[in-house]
Hints:
The protein has one helix and 57 strands. With 638 residues, it is mainly beta. Strands 47, 48, 49, 50, 51, 52, 53 and 54 form an eight-stranded antiparallel sheet that branches.
Amino acid sequence: xxxxxxxxxxxxxxxxxxxxxxxxxxxxxxxxxxxxxxxxxxxxxxxxxxxxxxxxxxxxxxxxxxxxxxxxxxxxxxxxxxxxxxxxxxxxxxxxxxxxxxxxxxxxxxxxxxxxxxxxxxxxxxxxxxxxxxxxxxxxxxxxxxxxxxxxxxxxxxxxxxxxxxxxxxxxxxxxxxxxxxxxxxxxxxxxxxxxxxxxxxxxxxxxxxxxxxxxxxxxxxxxxxxxxxxxxxxxxxxxxxxxxxxxxxxxxxxxxxxxxxxxxxxxxxxxxxxxxxxxxxxxxxxxxxxxxxxxxxxxxxxxxxxxxxxxxxxxxxxxxxxxxxxxxxxxxxxxxxxxxxxxxxxxxxxxxxxxxxxxxxxxxxxxxxxxxxxxxxxxxxxxxxxxxxxxxxxxxxxxxxxxxxxxxxxxxxxxxxxxxxxxxxxxxxxxxxxxxxxxxxxxxxxxxxxxxxxxxxxxxxxxxxxxxxxxxxxxxxxxxxxxxxxxxxxxxxxxxxxxxxxxxxxxxxxxxxxxxxxxxxxxxxxxxxxxxxxxxxxxxxxxxxxxxxxxxxxxxxxxxxxxxxxxxxxxxxxxxxxxxxxxxxxxxxxxxxxxxxxxxxxxxxxxxxxxxxxxxxxxxxxxxxxxxxxxxxxxxx
Length: 638
């Protein structure tokens, strides 16, 4: 039956009126943001970095984070690269962080529409947002550093882009103005963003305070209604909005809480299509929930209508299905077809915490939470990977000079490998160590052809000598039990850098300790050390590098004065030409031999957070929390 023309006109007029009201609400919000807090920012074209000769980037396999459809193509990012694929899965282009893009991890993708041409926005953890128009890149960088750590993006119907930050709140920009989106949203830790069913609704997920709904200029908060106040994901469908948490999903209709779904499920991504809600979980695969099969009661628990073991990290509704982004592949959920997978060409993880090159030129790479890789640098091929309950969180890797064994310090014991990279033994407290959490290892010659191994732990020092183990801790004079680094300052002299200062040991006994109270030391937390020419360079967590000479006198460096410079744990290295130190945000610091001035280097780094260093005599391996690169030492002019 045909509806009367007048009714059709009425419906059209009502829809147009509602749309106009939504536009007015968004425009009013834009005016309020601009008038309340117009903040400085820079919008400029990106210029690719010219990497030096001999540069090699070693990235992680897959590790995909986010994806978006843009101009008929699939754009995918992991923390260290942006990839452009055709819809059929052909890789067209790769842009690398530190080379083509700024040296900060990539976080999320979103499309901005409603302007002369659409744009792809890429959120970064420290460089603001990157904008790609299909041809060129620009960088949108707020002046204030906390505003450059973007956690979520959302394109609005009026052409503006919302930028959620890790700790500074929610902001909006039209590329001409930039400001706080709403006064109540300042300093909110934003984790997820989604548009609502109406054009004047915006849902804001937070890390600790549940989900917030901005509608027509007002903000409503929902925390008790959620299974957990930490929001991981939000999806707006045709009839409801779903909020995913670590312990289940909450459904909202017309801005009101309706029911909880899938309680106990870690819902890191959500998408609704054709009456089904898809949930990407942390350990149960990708789940399908039939929304039509259950009476909508707040206490109802929706059972899973279908289950897939496919682990995905992000979901994207498309015309006829939902695409699921796995760690290194893309799958269509309607039929389970795997559309394409990234080639396995890299490392197991990107968060490097320890490096060493052994006497066979094998590169040992320790990770924050993925064990170790052993890569033969003299031949092509993939690395060997080791990971178990012990080989998980890696703090330090060193090779024993005489026997050639490789010692791997972990958070759950000290693992010993032979020269052929076979695990032979694990030492723990049951074997005499003072603690299982091992932070550093030192091999020293005690004279008379005898050698011993010193093990730094979270509870003191353990000495492995002649098959016996002895230990000392604060009761025997250590300035603090938590030892991060050990250095040999002489034939019988050791320095133990701790959380509370540095202790000097002679023949295993504490002779003196130095802190900010009795020395020129500017920070008590000693994170790393390197020995060069009889001097010991001490990395601190806050005042850069300090020098301690053979008379145990402290000296600061002018380059670190008045600045907060954090040197990462065991991220220092001395070669015959230079002393290197990895900072927690300013790149690589280096001091050429014979000079007194430190320099900073960021070129080619996949992150400004340098976490590990190693040398093979010619090349420097630089590990970060976002990948690993190799540079010839001559790059630094030495």
